[in-house]
Each structure stands twice: as C-alpha cells, then as structure tokens.
Amino acid sequence: MTEVSEILMSVLSTIRVPRPGDRVHKDECAFSFASPESEGGLYVCMNSFLGFGSKYVERHHAKTGQRAYLHITRTRKTQKEDDNNSGSGDPPKKKPTRLAIGIEGGFDVEQEQYEEEVKVVLFPDRQDVTSDDLASMPDVVRERVSLSMTGLQAADSVSHTLQVQQWDGEVRQESKHAAELKQLDNGLKIPPSGWRCEVCDLQENLWMNLTDGKVLCGRRYFDGSGGNNHALLHFQQTGYPLAVKLGTITPDGADVYSYDEDDMVLDSKLPEHLSHFGIDMMTMEKTERTMTELEIAVNQRVGEWEVIQESGTTLRPLWGPGLTGMKNLGNSCYLNSVMQVLFTIPDFQTKYVSNIDKIFNEAPSDPTQDFKTQVAKLGYGLLSGEYSKPAPDPGDDPNASSETRGDQVGIAPRMFKALVGRGHPEFSTNRQQDAQEFLLHFINMVERNCRSGMNPSEAFRFLVEEKIVCQQSQKAKYTQRVDYIVQLPVPMDQATNMEELQEAEHRREEAESSGAPPPAAPRAQIPFAACLAALCEPETLTDFWSSAVQAKTTATKTTRFASFPDHLVIQIKKFTFGLDWVPKKLDVSIDVPDTLDLSALRAMGQQPGEELLPEVAPPPLMTPDVEVKGILGSHGNEEDDSLYSPLLSPVLDDSTVSQLCEMGFPLEACRKAVYYTGNTGIDAAMNWVMGHMEDPDFSAPLVLPGSSSAPGTTPTESVPEEHLATIVSMGFSRDQATRALRATSNVLERAVDWIFSHLDDLESMDVSEGGRSEGGSEASREPPPGPRVRDGPGKYELFAFISHMGTSTMCGHYVCHIKKDQQWVIFNDQKVCASEKPPKDLGYLYFYRRVVE
C-alpha cells in the first residue's frame, strides 16, 4: 500500500475535483457504448472527466500518460413484483404520479435501479484503491483523492443533464373563462355516477360542459381510441368553453379542459361550478384515470411492440451484426430510423466503420465533441453486433422473456444526439421531429465535415435541371441545382377509389349534422405513377421577367434529372395544410414499386435549334435624386460608357427582399436577386435565387457593375495579418479568412460573424492550405470545381423505407424497414424483428439503390 500511496502522491497534480460547469462523462464511453452497467464497468479520467470502457482506457492512458481513473460499476437491483417491497431494504419505489422528470412525483431517474461500486484504478498496472485504502494514506493524498471521488459521484453526468432535465408537463394555468363563466339555469342535475354520452351512449371518457351541463364523449385519437368528438362538436356549435372530465372529480380537484384555450386549465371556482349542477365535489371519488395518468401510461409504454406491430403477427426477434436496436431517448425514434438506414449504405460503412481505428487514433483531446468520432462510434455500435443481444429481465414482470419480446441491450445514442443537435433550435430538444428534416440536417453536417477526401453524402447527391421557356419568345433558360431528396407530390384527385372516398365524405357530413359518431374513413389509394407524373408535369410561372422581351410574361418550368445518384431518397409529401392552415397528414396508400426505372426523366439539355434566353439583367433602378454625370465627374471619366459607379446605390424593393429573407436565404443574396431582376417582383427574384444558389459568391455582398470589390475594400487592399491569424486559428483556411475580412472592411468582429453566417457559401470555395482544410484534410488533392456528383443508369431497387404513425411529423412514432439478405427487417427502436408483412404502401421516406446490370 506504501507503493500505491507513493504513486498517488506522484500523480496528485493530475487528479482534479469537478467544479461547476465541468463536463463529467460517467455514463458512457467516449469511443463505445460501454457504461458502468457493462462488463468491465466504466473508467472516468480523474483529470479530463472523460469516460472509457475497458477496451479503450488503455488507449487513453498510452496517449495522455494519465494514470488515475475512477472505476464505476453498476449492478441492477432485483425488483420484486410487489410494489411495496423494493427487494433491497430500501423504501419502496413510487410509481410516477406527475407528468414530469426530476420533480417530486415525476419519473424516477435510471440510476435508482442500480447499486453502484466505485474505486480508483492506477494504470498501467491496474492497481485498485478503495475508500477504505485511503484512510491509511497521507492526509494530502487522502483529502485530494477523496474530494475528487466524492465530486465525481455527486456531479451530474453530461447525459443526465441533457436527457433528464427537470421538466414538468403538468403545469396548468387558470382559465380566463373561470372567474366569469356563464352557467345556464336549466334545472339540470347530474347524478354522481352512471353517465352516458347524450349522443352516442359511450360510457367512458365523458366530459360535462360547465355552462349547460351536457354530458358528451371526448376526442377520438389517431389510433381510433378515445371518444367520438361529441364534446368538441358541442363547443363548436355553442361556444361554451369549459368542460370537466367526469370520473376525475375528487375533493382535491378534477380535469378541466378549455376548448377555447385548447389546453388543460385550472378552475378556481370549480366547486361552485359543479354545485350548480348538483355535484358535491367533497363526496366524489375518482373512477377514471386523469389525463395526466393517461399521458404517463403512454410515456411508460413508449416503443411498445404492440403500437406498430404488423397485423397482430407475432414477429421473430433477430440478433447479430447489423441487427442492433437503438434506445428511444424520448421522441428520438426519427433519429434512430434515419441512422439505421444510413449505416446499411456502403459509403457510410466505409467512411466511418472501416476507418474506425484511424478515426479514433486521430481524435482530438475531447472525442465526445468530434463529429467523425461519434459517427464512427455509432456506426460500429450498429454493425458490430456487440450490443445485439437480449436485454436483461426487465424486473417488472419476472415471467416475461426479453428474447421473445424482441428487447435488446441495444445502444443509447446520447452523445451522438447531443452533438448533432447542438445549437439547432429543434434537434437539440426532446420533442418529436421530422425524419426528412433530420436526414437533410445530418447530410449537411457530413458535407461540412468532409471538406476533402471521401464524402459519403455523395451517394445521395444529384443534379436537377430546370428548364424555363418564355411563352412569348419561346426561348429557353437552363439552370442546374444540387439536391439530395426527391419530394413526390400526392395528387389526391387521382385516387383509384374516388367514389368510395366521396361516399364516405357524404356519410361523414350526414353524421356530423345529426350528431352521430362519424363512420370510419377509407384510405385513399393513389397510384405511384400518378405521383411521378405530378412531379414531372410543367409548372406555369406568371409574372416571369423575360430577358428576350424585356418585360414580364408567362413561362413554363419543367424539372428533370441531370444526373442519377447511387442511392435515391423519395419523400412522399403526406403532410400538408388544411384550409384553416392547420397541419394535417394525408391518409393514403401508394403502390410504391420494388423496382424503379427513371430513365425517361433524364434531362436532355438544350435541343437542336432551340434558342436560349439572353443573359441580360434587367436595368437596375437608381436613386432618383442622384445626378449620374455629377458622380462620374468626381469618381469616373467621361470616356467610360458605363453609367455605374461604386457610390451609386440601387433602389431595392424592401418588401421583396424581406419575403426572400423570410424564406431563409442570405440577405445579400436576396438583395442581388431583387437588383438583377430589376424590382420585377417576388417570382422573378425567386427564379434568380434558384438559378444562382450554387454560385460561389451567392451570399457575398452586392457589388455593382463598374466596381471591383465589396464596399470598403479593393482587390489589392492589405488584410491585417493578426486578424488573419485569429480566424485561421478557429479552423478556417487563409483564403476563407481573407474573404471574410475583405467583405467586412477588415473589422475582425464583423468578419467572424460573417464567416459563421456564410458557412454554406464557404463550402464551395476551393480548399487551400492551412487552417481547417489542412488539419481536416484526408487527401492531398483539391476538390474539383462545382458540385461533385455520381451518375449512372436510372434503374433502382427498394432496400429500405421509414414509416410514420401519427397526425403530424411533430408527434407520433417512426419505425424503419430494411431489406437484409432478401429478408425485410423491422427496426422499432430497441426491437429488431423479421418482418412478415412490410407495409410498403404506407411509408414516408423510401430508399432505393442503383441496379447495375
């Protein structure tokens, strides 16, 4: 022990006590999904507070020389079926009574299910030091090591901070209608039990309107459960805003809903309002679950196989490499589904999994914040099979077998989700998201992190050719843009069962007018060919500014493939807006084919004898109070036939500029669009934007003809070397830093803001030596000019699709089906099973791969 004491003394300076704000990774390895519950436990560096599984701790020791690690192991507590017995002598574990996390009565945190053991381990000899061992060591050693151990145990882990934030979904506000609620003197008295819906005789999920005492059923949910919407229809007919859920009334309160405020609310006068209809709140007992209890039950069942099982079939669980489930971190099924599909694509496997040793060896000092490291970690976790094994017995039901239910140990992508969502207003939250938007977000991150070398997102990248024909001159204009996803419209008017749909709508209207429950609506059957035809049909452009006739006219626009990608992603545009601008999902079945031939949609380019629209910008408008000749006399020369000067500022239509900015385009690009289309309207400006989005200077400041650089700079103006060095040190190239400084008159603070707001523009610059391009380079070659796309035959076969359940992309549940070795496999978060009847007609995102003949 003397030897151990001496070692601790020698490394005492490397043992830190966590301070507020320190990131402590004590739940997950930086390079794998090892945790304290895994075999071998987790080793937490007592200097950097990074966590490492037993497979990677030696690597960290060899690379950094760090010797002291806190070793944490957790063992699952045995749980008894009896709720009143914790099985370990501890107080019984309470069931959640509040829809909240980290709040009294809310969901318990996961750590409460485990017994934890900690000790210090010294490398390279793996010498153990327990708290008891410290008692016999010198005071300075005992005090520092004990404080560090205690601090690490008490500190919130990063994953806990991100995923189990204190959240309360039950906070309710006083209704604005409660104080002055109008109640009708209709003599109605409501009995204490035996209620039925006055319209459909339903005996559960009943609500009493607090204005007229009508007892009616609640809303129907997307899965067909719940009521028949009669309480809601009553509000729509009468405007009476408040209703109380019968069966939830107790002396402590009840569920009150405000249809006008569209939320659960508080009613401080509830006893008085109930008494009006003969209900004594003090004598009532609860006979139905409250809305909070119903929501808690749903949250405790997140990911249950029964929610989305295929036609009630008992599905066979699968295990092994490439068959690893992913834990739902709370509405993270959109991420799980997308990443499962991406790592079946060879480009992503080669980039991140085949090169995993190289990526890990080159990882920065904090690998938890490195994109390549975390993507490689996720890919290896999904493909290796190490985590594709039956989960331990859940404890709540000792008779349940995890193997028959399909539960896996799986992986929990907490570190990955935190990294890819960082700074994003949506993906950084725990709310449900659109899988298509996340796919594009992730592709964008891949693009930014693959400045040179192999870029797996090229598998999806293709060129779209847009041909615009001026109907007055019959001259054409061709533009190309890069895209990653084909968005397929759903022409509802092409449904093959239109008569059935019209009859169902007629029956629904009759039921609504009579107050009867609406009949089940049939699903629209849309031919895939009709969707494809809708994608390709010409679009009419009104108010198109034609350079041939120098005026606004009508034009037609057709869209075709200028290249076909190796892997084609098709999004079915199921989500739309109703007449009231409320988002809704189209309930459609589309006969999506297993094989697809898009060869007929290849762009043909300019045709023989076809004339092109001249590349002439409309005349820009000048400020009316400027004397052009006077300015030329001061800053130009009389021989110059240009009427432009750097001091002339065009008059731009602010409303058009604002409309474009609201669509998400950079301000300078919007100004140029309005300038070069001569203030001829939003349509012309939008056409210019779509045709110039790939220009290297798309987001650069507007430079008027006759001037050679951005305002405030000249091509030969020197750039302060110290400012260059500051920006280069942030990871950007010298050329990018120079461009940012010249665009902002060499003001460092403005240049930094400019460079981060023009990242997409900078991606198109040639990568030069130095800065991020040098440090992140994976090959010595420079990328070719323009977007790099692969091309080949337009014949494809379906290999995966992502399905969505729910009324909107912001709620519901995602699963994916992937074809592996000619067998369809369903991935439903942690459950991976052989699919018996893959619902290919109900998908949201479809993934095809090229068929090479």
From TrEMBL:
Q: Which parts of the sequence belong to the UBP-type domain?
A: 173-281
Q: Does the keyword Transit peptide apply?
A: no
The residues covered by the USP domain are 324-851
Where does the UBA domain start and stop, copy by copy?
Answer: 651-692, 718-758
**What top-level class of enzyme does the UniProt entry assign?**
hydrolase
Per the record, which residues fall in region Disordered?
74-98, 386-408, 500-521, 766-792
Q: Which UniProt keywords apply?
A: Hydrolase, Metal-binding, Protease, Repeat, Thiol protease, Ubl conjugation pathway, Zinc, Zinc-finger
Q: Which CDD domains match?
A: Peptidase_C19B, UBA1_UBP5_like, UBA2_UBP5
- Record InterPro entries: Papain-like_cys_pep_sf, Peptidase_C19_UCH, Ub_carboxyl-term_hydrolase, UBA, UBA-like_sf, Ubiquitinyl_hydrolase, UBP13_Znf-UBP_var, USP
Q: Which family does it belong to?
A: Belongs to the peptidase C19 family.
The protein in question is named: Ubiquitin carboxyl-terminal hydrolase
Please tell me the species this chain comes from. Answer: Cirrhinus molitorella (mud carp)
